[in-house]
Design goal:
five-stranded parallel β-sheet; five-stranded antiparallel β-sheet; GMP Synthetase, Chain A, domain 3; 30% helix; alpha/beta; 12 helices; binds ligand 8LH; globular; 21 strands; Rossmann fold
């Protein structure tokens, strides 16, 4: 372990009165800019420690690793660590079913639980997340550190425009902003008429920073336009997003930056992985997301073998907590898709990077007639088309023995004048995706807008798991 790594110990605990020197771009200058090999060596020791802790405190991990004849002490190299079996969400659901409500991977006494969050449960049994009191403080510290990296400073007003419910995104952003000594405006989202009220509050309070999902920011810009308010007048400087692809999809990113006149920052892993901001861009490395490897260990892996892929390659993120004690996740499979690189970052942090962010879930990729279509490609393309109305839907269905893809997009032109729009958009999509597309236009403002995460794909094929 490097003697100079600031506050590096397990279980983690940070000096709650610490703030960096105001002139420093870094919260922890050494940890953020150190030689990555040296950092990795410290992380390897930590991985063993976290595994020892989990093995001692959780029947779930003992069962899982005993079945593979694996002991934490065996983890003496990253090659060995890559052989630790991944956790899939179904296993957590099963563990919570057997040991309600938190599963037998809760590694602290129930009296230590400070927050309970969960999945919405719209696509199956909901999963509960238990976060310890001490962990919450550490999460807040980590998020404050990452917000500092985005350029947010004590005293700044941070407007949180995401659901305050079971969703961890809003609470995690708020915890970090509070620890950073910001002024938090926990506005929320999702109630009737709330978007118009958000416009009023943004115009009145002129916050410096803003958190939401990317699709909600675009929705907000539309509602502001309807209210004859220019979102640039909110005076926002930095908008950070998580929860879905968007902030790293070039056309979406540009649309948000142009509408609000603010910097767009992408962040986010998974709720289970809170501090979920451990993948995040910074003010001087604004594109994609850096992987803050001393907070959460991020691997990008082959989706079948779960061994890491070389830098430059595509794979699926696999995450391991380095600081959580309540429900530490050790090799949680995300089933998302990304690409990682290791290069010099303009901000000086020596972390690997996901240059294109996380571009989607493996399950959401549409397999049609031998081609793979990412819904984000469609989004990116449509946002560049003149007269596009801002929302679309992708329907995949089987007609006879053929799969058919229908893209329905809003158009700002009156219905009698859309021939040219339909022709250029339909043929553009077809050549981009390499599959036949039936393209339809609908009136602007007629498709549903997301108040949270968008759901634009309707796959009607029976065999497709959604
Ligand atoms: C993303 C991104 C992103 C999440 N780019 N896809 O918001 C962060 C946490 C709280 C969250 O959304 O957790 P949740 O609800 O468990 O969803 C996780 C999934 O959301 C993740 O696996 C991705 O598919 C997606 N996601 N942040 C692209 N910045």
């Amino acid at each position: 372990m490097s003697a100079q790594m600031e506050e590096w110990h397990f279980p983690a605990g940070y000096d709650q009165s610490y703030l960096p020197d105001p002139s420093s771009p870094y919260w922890f200058p050494h940890r953020e800019t150190m030689d990555p090999e040296e950092r990795n060596a410290a992380v390897l020791v930590r991985l063993r420690e976290v595994m020892e802790y989990a093995y001692a405190t959780s029947p779930f991990y003992r069962r899982k690793w005993d079945a593979e004849d694996l002991k934490p002490a065996d983890i003496t190299s990253f090659e060995a660590f890559e052989q630790v079996p991944v956790i899939q969400k179904e296993e957590m659901r099963a563990a919570q079913h057997e040991h309600p409500p938190f599963g037998d991977y809760l590694c602290v006494d129930e009296s230590e639980i400070h927050h309970i969050h969960g999945t919405s449960g719209t696509t199956g049994m909901p999963t509960a997340f238990a976060l310890g009191r001490r962990d919450w403080e550490v999460i807040a510290d980590n998020h404050a550190r990452i917000l500092w990296g985005m350029g947010v400073r004590p005293g700044d007003t941070v407007f949180v425009a995401a659901l305050f419910s079971l969703y961890l995104g809003s609470w995690g952003a708020m915890a970090g902003a509070e620890r950073l000594r910001c002024r938090v405006l926990p506005f929320g989202a999702g109630a009737q008429g709330m978007t118009a009220r958000a416009v009023t509050w943004l115009a009145r309070t002129k916050p410096k920073a803003f958190y939401a999902t990317p699709s909600y920011a675009l929705r907000l810009a539309e509602v502001a336009a309807q209210e004859k308010i220019d979102p640039k007048d909110f005076g926002l400087e930095v908008m950070f997003f998580s929860g879905e692809p968007g902030a790293s999809v070039p056309a979406v990113r540009d649309a948000i930056a142009d509408a609000f006149g603010a910097r767009v920052v992408d962040c986010g892993t998974m709720a289970e992985m809170t501090p979920f901001m451990s993948a995040s861009a910074t003010d001087r490395t604004p594109d994609g997301m850096l992987l803050w490897q001393d907070i959460v260990w991020h691997e990008v892996c082959d989706p079948t073998t779960f061994r890491t892929v070389p830098f430059g390659s595509e794979g699926t993120p696999v995450y391991t907590h380095l600081e959580r004690t309540s429900q530490p996740m050790i090799r949680l499979a995300s089933n998302d898709l990304t690409r990682w690189v290791m290069e010099d970052n303009p901000c000086g942090r020596t972390y690997p990077k996901l240059p294109d962010g996380v571009y989607g879930r493996i399950d959401d990729m549409i397999h049609i007639r031998g081609e793979n279509v990412y819904p984000t490609e469609v989004d990116n393309f449509l946002r560049g088309v003149a007269d596009y109305g801002g929302e679309h839907q992708i329907v995949v269905r089987r007609t006879g023995s053929m799969d058919e893809m229908i893209v329905r997009a809003e158009c700002t032109l009156p219905s009698g004048q859309r021939d040219d729009f339909e022709r250029r958009t339909g043929s553009g999509l077809q050549s981009l995706l390499g599959v036949r597309v039936t393209f339809e236009s609908v009136d602007a403002h007629t498709l549903e807008r997301a108040e949270h995460k968008s759901r634009r794909v309707v796959d009607e094929r029976e065999h497709t798991k959604r």
